[in-house]
Design brief:
With about 150 residues, the protein is mainly alpha-helical. The chain has 2 domains: about 10-70, Arc Repressor Mutant, subunit A, CATH 1.10.10; about 90-145, no CATH class. Helices cover about 55% and strands about 10% of the residues. It contains 6 helices and 3 strands, in the order αβααββααα. The protein has helices at about 10-25, 30-40, 45-55, 75-90, 95-105, 110-125; strands spanning about 25, 60-65, 65-70. It has a 3-stranded antiparallel β-sheet with strand order 1-3-2. A hairpin with a 2-residue loop joins β2 and β3.
């Protein structure tokens, strides 16, 4: 397993990773078949994306006779969490709540999903603050434009 993973992947590379995550150990032929159905990609296109993901350390390759078996070097939920964490680190603290609300409003949710969110929100209420403080340096966000009390 590679020690360093380049987790910056394109939308097309996401498509490949989703197949690998869904099937754990998969051949390029199996990846190609799934993505031909979904994206109508030629096999060479899919192989290009597989090669890029191997170079980035996202995919582990193991030879089995004449074929290669691919598996993920990072768990899907860890990868998604890492990407979300990075997104939230790169926006103003004051925008995090609105971003989460926007994500929820766009998502299709089950009653069970909503129940989990309600429980999480109830727990968050215990640590809630009157106003979230800005995490940016002056000129990096619009807090001053909205007359927020952000300490700038």
């Amino acid at each position: 397993m590679n020690t360093e993973i380049d987790s910056k992947i394109t939308e097309s590379e996401w498509e490949v990773m989703r197949v690998v995550w869904a099937q754990d150990n998969v051949t390029s032929k199996e990846i190609i078949e799934v993505l031909q159905q979904k994206k109508d990609w030629k096999s060479a296109t899919t192989k290009t994306f597989i090669g890029r993901l191997v170079k980035k350390g996202m995919l582990h390759t193991e030879a089995e006779g004449k074929k290669y078996i691919y598996s993920a070097n990072i768990n899907e939920s860890e990868f998604i969490k890492s990407n979300l964490d990075e997104t939230f680190q790169n926006i103003c603290n004051k925008d995090v709540g609105n971003t989460i609300v926007d994500l929820i409003s766009k998502a299709t949710l089950s009653f069970k999903d909503i129940e989990k969110m309600e429980k999480a929100l109830d727990m968050k209420k215990k640590d809630a603050v009157e106003e979230v403080s800005c995490s940016c340096v002056p000129g990096q966000c619009k807090c001053n434009d909205h007359n927020c009390s952000s300490g700038h």
